[in-house]
């Protein structure tokens, strides 16, 4: 059976449009109706977003920089990036996630969205689209893909990493669940992932495998980070062309 790109992708889409949407909308939101595990994942994820914003800002101001947020979820990264003046193209396979991102965006007064609006003629509102990673095209200064590779087995992840790198001119930022925590993670967060046998659908990746996939397309890792809370593990890498 085909995995992502076939059967698995449909399962993932269906999950993030239904029960997964309900669950992750809460985790990525601000309401109090989350359990202890969800609250912990919310904290871990917000640290990942914070680290990415820091990584990006360290290289210089974001004003006018084009960013592709691949698998954007509810816009947790896209919206703050747009606030910094980045020109954000965000997309997700789930129409429900994209609709939620647009809803969140509306809660932001336009005047708050971009610190550098005066210098930037035209709109810098992030553009949200329903699209899967496979059909992304175009060129962006920066491509970011956070916590999406968990839906890709390593053999599919290699190709996806190459594809994302081909869209990026300057840098690619990826976060993924590190294989190191394999058994522990499967046991603990199995319930968070799609499919009848939920736990088996979460794919962990060894940093060495990600690095090899990047090297294959002429990219190298130049920054690394890790976020660990009780129930959330995420490795963060920034890659650049060699
Ligand atoms: N990147 C967002 C963030 O960090 O806030 C969302 C992370 S969430 C765990 C994973 C997201 O990946 C979901 O919104 C899901 O719909 C999306 N996704 C999964 N497979 C995808 C694919 N093949 N193409 C595009 N999006 C995908």
TrEMBL record:
<dbReference type="GO" id="GO:0015995">
    <property type="term" value="P:chlorophyll biosynthetic process"/>
</dbReference>
<dbReference type="GO" id="GO:0046406">
    <property type="term" value="F:magnesium protoporphyrin IX methyltransferase activity"/>
</dbReference>
<protein>
    <recommendedName>
        <fullName>Magnesium-protoporphyrin IX methyltransferase C-terminal domain-containing protein</fullName>
    </recommendedName>
</protein>
<feature type="domain" description="Magnesium-protoporphyrin IX methyltransferase C-terminal">
    <location>
        <begin position="145"/>
        <end position="240"/>
    </location>
</feature>
